[in-house]
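Deviations from the work plan: none for this task. Representative record:
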Amino acid sequence: MSILPQLERDLLHAAEQRLTGARVPRARWRRRRLTLALALAAAALLGAGGGELLLSNGRTVQPAFVLPQSPNAGLGRPLPSSLRLLPMRVADPVGGPPWGMRVIETSRGLACVQGGRVVHGQIGGIGVGYAFEGDGRFHPFAAADAISLDSCATIDARGRAFQPGAPAVVTADGLPLAGENIYPYQRVHCDLPGQEDWGVRCPHDDLRVLAIGMLGPDAASIRVSTPQRTFTVKPYGPDGAYLIVLPAPPRANTGPYGFQGRAAPGTPTLTVTFRNGSTCRLPTSSASQQCRPEGIQPASVRSRAGAPPHSAVHVRYSPMASAPAPLAVNARGGTGSFPRTVTAPNGPGPALIVTFRAPLAAPSVSSGYDVELEPVPVTGCSLPASILSQPTQQTISAGQRVRIAVPTASARDGEGSCRTAYRGRVFFASSSGSDSEARTSDRAGEGPLYEVIAGEAARRRSFGVTIARFVVDVP
Amino acid sequence: MTSSLERDEDDMLSAASTDPQAFAAFYRRFERPVLGFFMRATGRADLAADLAAETFARALESLHAYEPSRGRADNWLFGIARNVLGSSYRRSRVEAGARERLGMPRLALDDHACETIARLGDGEEHATLALAQLPEEQRRAIQARVLAERDYAEIACELRCSEAVVRQRVSRGLRTLRARLAGGR
C-alpha cells in the first residue's frame, strides 16, 4: 500500500485522462468562491470598526520552502536583528487596518521588502474576499515568506538596497505582498490582472493599486500621477522607502490589462527625483527613464595586500563524479543550443574536480567562484564551445579551500570516444542589483549572480576576475 | 549489466504511456525512494510530499520523452526530482505547474502519512552514520553500487579492481550495516 494513496489515485486519474485525451479541468485548484454576502459583511465589519481591534489572529502564512539550515548557504537565513517595521502607515481607501512595510535582511547579504496590513505591530493579511476562507481574521506573515531571489535585492557597502517597485494591482487582503516564498495557492485566491489561475476574477471592490519599494538614500521625492490628481510623497529614511496605496482604476481587472505589462487606463505612474536632480519613472518602457541605483555603492572586492588575485589550482578528472548540471553550455558557431554531448547529468558522470584556495572572500549571495571549460575541438566529435559550472552558493572566506565539480562531455551520449584536452579558467564574479532590475536592464553585472554569469557567457564575454587557468587532458 | 529488476522498472515506465495502471505501479515502486530523497533534502514531511507529487506529475507529463536506450527509469525519475528540487530552491517555493496542468487537486496529508514520510528521513540518517563507520573500501563500493545504483563493471573500473572484488566489498559492507542497524556490533 502506498503512503500517499490520494496521490496515487490522482496520478492514475490524470494518466487515464491523458490517454483518453480528455480535457483536464483546472477547476480543482480554484478556491470555492465565498458568498458575496459574507465578503461584504467582513469588509463592512472592518471598515466600520476601524479594523484593528476587531481582528483576532488566524494562522500565520508559512513559507512554502524551508530556507537552508546553514546561514552561509543559498539565500541565507533571515537575521532577526535586521527585522525593521518601518513607521509609515497608509490608510486603506475603503477602511480596515492600515498598510505598512518592513525590511528583512538575510545572512547572505539580501534585503527583502514585505508589505501588508498592520495589526498590533505585525505585518500580515486579512481574511476578506477570497483570502483565508473569508474568516475575517488577521494572518501574520513570517519573515521567511519574503526571502526569495525574486523579491530581494543585494545590500550595498553601506547596508542599503535598491528595489524599485512600480504600481501594481493587488488584493485588499494584503496577501500579494507577503513575498515570493509562499505557496501559489496561498498567494491570492482569485485572478488579478494578467492571471488566469483560479478561473474567478477578483472583484473590483477587492482591488487596490499599491507601490512599494526602496530607492536608496539619494531619493528626494516621488510624484504620483493619476488621471484625477497629482501629489508628492517623500521617501522615508536612508532606505528611501515608499508605500503608496490607492483605489484600483475602473476596469483594472478586465480585458487585456496586466498581460505583457499593459496597465489599465488610470493606473498611476511614479516620477522619482534624486538629490542630484536626475529623474526616472515607474513603470517605464524607455531605457533612458529607467530608475538606476543612485547613492547605492556596490561592495568592493579587494584581494589581500592589494595583489592581483591568484591561486594555485588542482584539477582532477573523474569518470564518475557527482556534479551539478552546468549553469550553461554554449555550442560552437554561436547557435546557443545545448549540445547533447554534455548532459545535465543530475547524477554521477564524467567531471573535472577543481580545487583551490580562495584569494578573495565571497561573503554574500551576490559573489562566488565559477569554472569555465573550453574543450579543444576533435574531428568527428560534437563538443561544445564552453561549459560553465554552477557558481558557488555558500559563504567563502579568503584563504578557504574551494571545490567545484564541472561535468564534462560524455562519450556515452556522443558519437564515440572524444578524448581531448580542456582549457579551463577559474574566476571570481560578483553582481549587484535585484532580479527586477535584471529583467529591465542590459547593464553588465546587475541581477542574481547566476543570471549575470550565464548572460555574459551567452554573449561570449569574458567575465569576472580570473584567478587561475589550467589545461588538462580528459580521456 | 542490467538487472531484471531494473528492466522491470524500465518496462513499467515504457508501458505507462499506454497503460495508466503501469504508471500507478511505477509510482508505487518509487514512492518511498522519492519521498525519502525529498525528506532528506528538506527535513519537512509536508514539503517532501508536495515535491514528490510535483515530480510524479512532471514524470507523467514527460512520459513521451523517456527513452530506455538513453538511461534507466530510476535515473530519469530522479533527474526530474532534482530538477523540481532545484527549481523550487531557486524560486523559494514548491513548483506546482505540472499538477495544475494535469488538474490534480492539492494534496491533503494526515498525521500518519507525515510520520511515515518523516521516518524515511530518520532511517536514512542512521544508515548514513553506520555507512560512514565502514572501512573506506567497503563504504565506497556501497555508495557506488547501492546508493548511486551503478553497474559493477563501472565501479570496478573506477576503483581499479575486479568486479568480483567489488561484489565482495558490497556484500561484506551490507552484512556489517545490517548487523549494526539491527543493534548488533
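Residues 4-113 of chain B form a domain with the Rna Polymerase Sigma Factor; Chain: A fold (CATH 1.10.1740.10).
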